[in-house]
Structures are given as C-alpha cells and as structure tokens.
Amino acid sequence: MVALTEGRGADVVIVACSFTQAQEQALSLAGKGGSINFFGGFPLHQSNVFIDSNVIHRREISVQGSHGSISDDTAEALKVLARNFFGIWRPYHLYLSSRFY
Asked: Could you tell me the CATH superfamily of domain 10-70?
C-alpha cells in the first residue's frame, strides 16, 4: 500500500471479512487522517483484536463500523471490481468464495 500511495497510506480502508489479522492490519494501511471501516463482524466470544491506540491518535485515524447489506450491494461491488474502477486489477475470484467462516 505504501508503494501505491507514494508513502501516504490509504485514505479509506474497508475491512469486509471476519479475520482478526485483517482488522489489525488496517491500521498499517491507513494514512494520516485516514478512515477505517469494519464491516465484517466476529462470533460473539471471538471478537477481541489488538488495536494500537497510539497509531490512531498520532495519525488521526477515524475508526467506525457498519452492518448490513442486500444482494444488490454485492452485485454492484462485483461490477466495480470487474470494471477495475480503482485502477488496480486484482482478479476478484481470488478473494471471493462461497465458503463462510
């Protein structure tokens, strides 16, 4: 991410999966004044992640959560990926599956 943003980090990081490592890694991806959204939740008794609050404080990162979507949202997200909207082609089939954890 640092190379893609010339050292600035991402303005927005969206974590849409239920992996503690992904939520923890989000802090290293967000740049100064960036925003992180946690969209993927965890099972009730497995929801603890390590978040370095000094990174949030010093880089002035905003962290929020969101919940809920409909199938039309998923279809639109796939269209965005297929159009290479962000200019970084990544074969989305490598990231999507029918397996749920």
From this structure: NAD(P)-binding Rossmann-like Domain (3.40.50.720)
